[in-house]
């Protein structure tokens, strides 16, 4: 790790984003975004729809190209295709829509990446997948197909699948937004469990209870900019910007 580092200055960061600018055509969707995430920290990104949250998360994982600025993940600078592959190996991603492979069982969904990439033998991967499925409360669903599961179960399976690649960092993009209300808590509980085990996490979510409980830092975005950032106690009780105030009144 950190082989391409020259200064060591940012070695401590799990994620280091400097002055990131991204456009879709003429649309300026990320504007000089800078963000530093230390290992083990939990960041919650919130903000109105269209403010650039998903785009930022996708840039961190190398899923979106960007035009200006720098992103470094786990000591690897995202600047070349090989680096993108290296970064993706360090980062687990959980989306709003679970994207499990419908034709594979939960267990086989979990085995695909670690076995295909050669990270583990099939036997090792299976032992680890079963352990992770147990951890997310899905042990008895290992042989089920996604269509046989509730949304909450599918999302917990998706979390287990991501964990099977031994990620250093987990990115969540509105993981509970597509769920029926009664299933939100089981997924948030799984995320809290991960947080308590020390995972570095960046979560886009509007679950402010989760944010209060888990986040070290709240990052509020609007129109492609980070408008305000700080600990939950400060952002929620005494927001500085009128835009964050208005947003909190709307979501809480
Ligand atoms: P959020 O996740 O905060 O709702 P997004 O990152 O999805 O916001 O979108 C930010 C802006 O970029 C929005 O104006 C959206 O319409 C636009 N956008 C997102 N994806 C694309 C795309 N693939 N092509 C063009 N515009 C996009
Ligand atoms: Mg989004």
UniProtKB/TrEMBL annotation:
Keywords: ATP-binding, Nucleotide-binding, Transport. Transmembrane segments: none annotated. It comes from the Bacteria. The keyword Transport applies. Residues 15-248 form the ABC transporter domain. CDD domains: ABC_HisP_GlnQ. Belongs to the ABC transporter superfamily. This is Amino acid ABC transporter ATP-binding protein.
């Amino acid at each position: 790790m950190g082989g391409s580092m020259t200064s060591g200055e940012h070695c401590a960061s799990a994620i280091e984003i400097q002055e990131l600018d991204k456009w879709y055509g003429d649309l300026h969707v990320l504007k000089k975004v800078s963000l530093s995430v230390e290992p083990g920290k939990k960041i919650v990104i919130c903000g109105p729809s269209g403010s650039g949250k998903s785009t930022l998360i996708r840039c961190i994982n190398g899923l979106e190209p960007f035009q200006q600025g720098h992103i470094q993940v786990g000591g690897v600078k995202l600047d070349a295709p090989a680096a993108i592959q290296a970064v993706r190996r360090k980062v687990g991603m959980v989306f709003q829509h679970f994207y499990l492979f419908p034709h594979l069982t939960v267990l086989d969904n979990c085995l695909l990446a670690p076995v295909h990439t050669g990270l583990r033998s099939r036997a090792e991967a299976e032992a680890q997948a079963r352990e992770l499925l147990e951890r997310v409360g899905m042990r008895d669903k290992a042989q089920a197909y996604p269509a046989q599961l509730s949304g909450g179960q599918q999302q917990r399976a998706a979390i287990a699948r991501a964990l099977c690649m031994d990620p250093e960092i987990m990115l969540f993009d509105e993981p509970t937004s597509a769920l029926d209300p009664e299933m939100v808590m089981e997924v948030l509980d799984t995320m809290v469990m991960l947080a308590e085990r020390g995972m570095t996490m960046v979560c886009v979510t509007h679950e402010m209870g989760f944010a209060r409980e888990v986040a070290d830092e709240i990052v509020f975005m609007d129109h492609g900019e980070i408008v305000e950032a700080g600990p939950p106690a400060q952002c929620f009780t005494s927001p500085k910007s009128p835009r964050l105030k208005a947003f909190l009144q709307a979501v809480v």
